[in-house]
Amino acid sequence: MSSIVSPTSRLMALVILASSLIALDLFMVASTGLLGLAIIVFILILRVYVVLAQTVLANIRVITSYDGIREGDPLKVAYTMCNETVVPIAIVELSLAYPEYLKIIEGSPGALILIPPRGCITYKTVFLARVGKHRIGPLRAVLRDPFGFFKGAELKLGDILEVSIRPREGEVLRKILLNIARSTGLSKARRAGEGSEFYFTRDYRPGDDLKRIYWKALAKMRLAVREYERESMIYTLFLLLIDKSMLYGPYLNTPLEHISRIIAIVSRHLAEKNDWINSIILAGGRLQIGIPGRGRRGYVNIINNISSIDYMSIMNDRSDSENLKALLRSTISTIVSTTPRSPINLIVIASLDNATSVASELKHLQYLGKFTIHMFIPIPHLYGLEKISPFERAIYRIKTFSDTSRAQSIVRDIRRTGIRALAVTPWDMATRIIARIERMRV
Amino acid sequence: MTMKRKTKIVMVSTLLILLLLLIGIIGILEKGPIIIPVFIGAHPANNGPLGLSNLYEMLRYNYTVILVTNWSKIIDSLEECSNILIIIVSPEAPYKRDEVESILDITRKCRSTSIIIGDETGNTNMILEAMRSNTRIPGYSPEGQYPIVYFNTPWGWSGILVLDRPSVLTLLSLTPNLTPIGVLATTTSRAISESTVYSIVENLGNITVLVVGDGSIFLNQVIRSNTTMDYRGFIESMIKFMCKHNCTILLESSKSQAVHPRDAFRMLSDPSKALLVDPISLIISFLVQVIHPSTWLPPLLDYLNRLIFNLLNIDYVRGMLLLISILVITLTIISRERSVPDEPLQDTIEVTWYGHASFRSKLLEGGAKLDKTDFLSLYSIVDSLLKSTTGVSLQSPDIVKVLVSRGINQRKALDYYEFMNKYYGRASSKSRWPLIVFWGSIVRKAITLSEDILRSIGYSLMEYRGVEERLV
Amino acid sequence: MRSIYITVATSIVSAVLAFPLLAISLSMIAGYTIDLKDIFDLRNIYSTIRIASILLSTIFIILAVLTINSILYVIALISHVVIGNYEVLLSPIYLLPIIFYGLLKVLSEGWRRDQVKSINISISGLLLTIVSLIVIISSAIILSYYIGSIIWGYIIAIRSINIDVLVLRSLADFLTINPLGSTILVGLSIVGFYVLFREFTEILVLYINPSRQVALNALKSIDFDVPFKPPLSSLRNMIISLSIAPPFYYLIAQTLDRFNLMPESLVASILFKWLLSVLVLTILWIIVSKLLTRLDESDPSLLSIASGLILILLLYSLVYILGLWDPRAESLSLENADLYLKRVIFNYYSTLFSIVELILILLGVAP
Known about the structure:
The complex is a heterotrimer. Chain A folds into 3 domains: 1-165, Immunoglobulin-like (Sandwich), CATH 2.60.40; 171-188 and 232-440, Rossmann fold (3-Layer(aba) Sandwich), CATH 3.40.50.410; 198-228, no CATH class. Helix content of chain A is 37%, strand content 28%. Chain A has helices spanning 9-26, 33-58, 171-184, 255-272, 295-307, 311-315, 321-338, 355-366, 390-399, 401-416, 429-440; strands at 5-7, 61-67, 74-83, 89-96, 103-106, 110-115, 119-128, 132-136, 139-143, 150-152, 155-157, 161-165, 198-203, 213-214, 224-228, 235-242, 276-283, 286-289, 293-294, 344-349, 371-378, 420-424. In chain A, strands 16, 17, 18, 19, 20, 21 and 22 form a 7-stranded mixed beta sheet that branches. The longest helix of chain A is centred in the N-terminal third of the chain and has 26 residues, at 33-58. In chain A, 50% of the residues are buried. By secondary structure, chain B is α/β, with parallel strands linked by helices. Chain B has helices spanning 14-31, 53-62, 71-77, 97-109, 125-130, 220-224, 231-243, 261-269, 271-274, 279-291, 293-313, 315-334, 357-365, 372-390, 398-405, 410-427, 439-456, 468-471; strands spanning 9-10, 38-39, 64-68, 83-89, 112-118, 135-136, 148-152, 158-162, 170-171, 178-184, 197-204, 207-212, 248-252, 258-259. By secondary structure, chain C is an all-alpha fold. Among the domains of chain C are: 1-119, no CATH class; 233-363, no CATH class. Chain C contains 16 helices and 2 strands. In chain C, helix 1 packs antiparallel against helix 6, helix 4 packs antiparallel against helix 6 (96-110) and helix 14 (270-297) crosses helix 16. The chains are: A alpha+beta, B alpha/beta, C mainly alpha. Chains in contact: A-B, A-C, B-C. Chains A and C meet through helix 1, helix 2, strand 4, strand 6 and strand 7 of A and helix 4, helix 6, helix 7, strand 1 and helix 8 of C. Strand 7 of chain A pairs antiparallel with strand 1 (119-121) of chain C, so a sheet runs across the interface.
């Protein structure tokens, strides 16, 4: 028996009613047989309507759209359903399929709607955007007739939206950055010198290279020379190894989101200094290798790479440490083959669980000489300190103390391999990372 | 996938077969029962003393026997008739012209025909006449009812048989083709005259006729009887002789009376007629009638109808019947539809992931259990913080002074020091005192006390940003 | 995340709709001057049943209102009908809950709390939908009456049929006049129309407006791994058991004969032969059916087929050996193997056939 449309248990009630009316007639109590039979025929006609409406609903034109690209901003998702036939579709129950880790801030996750004939209806909802790549949709729809006697099979309307959200560079971080840059006095101004990037034009001074003369300025009766920027030879590579624990924490404040924001602001800073920057992200058993770049291009590449982190593949990742090691090795060979001979600052963000494996693979890189490696290990359980009462916090701390001490011992072990490692808490992560990076650039 | 249902799709259900059977029964009902007529008299189907069933069985064993119920039709069904033997035993009605004609047609059609006639009534005289036989059966016996007849047959069988109310044979002329084979036993030297011949064999071209003036020797009661007289041998040898090598036997079956079982039953009660009826065939006949649906189905249905109408007059039974009726109609319709439970769509449940998720949710519900390992952790935290800030361990008595210098009350500091170390010893099994410890409340108390102490050195267990930076 | 307002509103409406029936039930209970003794008086069982039905009905109505379940309501309704209170079915006011509880339930379960913010539809669209729905439902009602009257006319015609044949008259009366018989007749007629109409319209709609998603859903909803019971499997099993019955019959007959387990006359009688052959056939048929149903569900392995065939061969060989050697005879039998087997098999089948012939003749099926 195919199930395009199935009756619900309510239909049995109506059938019992119809049967009673017919039975009354047969027992010669009242002439209600025709009414009973008419009810049964009505049921059949209603069924025809539902089948028809179901096929129309399945073929309906759905326009999906979304709006919002930055973390913390509202992410508006809209599905517009347009019915081009004269058949009204009633009643449809909608439910949007979206990842469980996203929150809706406006609207509802589903709705009960009517779709007018030759008309459109829009279902929209607003999420609070989180950094990374998220798949939203499709819209699940179940059709019922207006009296609830029949129910159609579940349909999927619209497309699956793939939304990439960029990290937010908040004011707080910017202030931290500026403070550190100013306090260390190491804010590197752009240097004039040999290079290919245009810097500024100035008047000709005797002794300037004739090749540098900007002839177009002569049109304005001015003899000018173009200054190029000295090419920055600093190369900073961010290596992020993300596992489940980096996703633990309150909304918008998990280690991953925290790190993303820090890296975003740091990348911008480095991009402004015209450094070469690049990112490699290992998440959910997949390798996301960024494209190295300078300036705006480099910054954009890093932002795009971070925006492509897929939470669900991280949470569902079942690969073991062997897999991780293999991926690491291929990562390292990529790093080695694609980076230039100039010194490279390798900033590694790893989790408590994979830090040791990562360190054991990376320590070989140190022998190449050009790599300066710094590892930062966030402590995920500290992100759970939010949103609980003070006394409970104390208990939480006591209970998770073993994890905290584990972090200590892991850092100690890694330091023994020669890699500079640091366990960072939510409160000092930004400061420490930025400070280190600034120091590395000298 | 959960366990699969072990349902089977049945293409032709048992219900369907039963319904077809029901239709079949209704069909038979309409057609009516078969009435197996009971034959009285000399008929192959009569199993009684006066029937020919034993003869029939005897013949069937060795030869092909066809029971003739209609002489006009029989000739068409005879495809191959090289050798035909017609046996006529005690016909109860005379032969009509067309029957005689058909018999003659057979004799003409077939290469050689033999006829055995065992008749004491004279009903076969028409046949004899038509075949131009010189024998006639007058229908009486002047020598008494049970004459002893001596048989001396051309095929070699000879013997004495007692005949039962036979008819003597009238010989129209004594031709060399006609051989008397059965004469009255007492007639030894007396000339053969009409009054003594009881059986002849006559050769009429391609027809051989054997007439015995008594049909009863072929009857069941005689063949079954266990007397010194060899009736059975006589008949067997006769048949063998008349049949020559191989023949098809046509056994006359159209001339005995068939009665309805009902009448046969009535006849049983009449002692004079009782012998004619075979009780076994009667019983079978009755059984067949009884089994047939037309006997029991209509009365049953009538009874059901009346029963239900009577029940309907009773009020509460009427309600029950009405209910049954409603259920029947509902179920027949609902069984054609497979209904589904109507559940609303489940919306996505939003979750926040946390490390130590189960513990955290238990904590928020207020169900966190604290034990001595937690106490040890707490001690460790406080100890390392004190060590790193002041340089003095919590285990050292100097800590009291240090704490006082940080602003803690002397008494309080001392109490704290003692408290923590006492339970530290207990938790690390260094001492067994105190014996019974409720660790939950002890740890909670320790937390409260430690908070004040830690705050004095600039840390906090309960603040969001409390101790970790120092610890790591 | 269901809306509390909608839930409350639907509950109120459901209570209002169910009120008339509740009022009747409560008034009937109140109207009864209940003498507690009467309830336990078995002679007045009718009154006990009445009271029980009304109480049951009241409970079900309350449950129906609380859960907005139309089945519970209809059970309450039927409880009234069964005790003779027919006006609950004749007046539409009592039937409203059956029709509208579905809508109320769908609303209360499906309406999400903040969905008004999520949905954007023009007022004209909404009005147009409602108006067109009203038009569709009204047309459906009119059409259903029209079609219903045609079918009802057919049913009345069947019920007023007159049959001449006397033996069939009581059956006809049972089906047409007797209420229970009419129920069966009318029920089956309705189901016939129902299924035809349903299949026809579904196919027509799908033909006019095909949809990939709907088709895929329908295909995926069918159980793939359901075994079929092949039609006429009983007949097939009978044929198989017929083909292997001769050796079994012969073996049993020979065992009885050679070891003198049963009196000679009994064994030789035709009735005993009939009984034995039918018994052997029936038992074999049951065994074969059981074995083969398992094979129908899963593919037979080579081993099982081979073992079955070998078993049958062994049986026939055993028969042959038995024929060769009879301990009571002086020497080995000189009979040719195939003739011997043929005789054995032929005997069995002719025995069976004689029974079948007799039964058929007795029943009047064959002339």
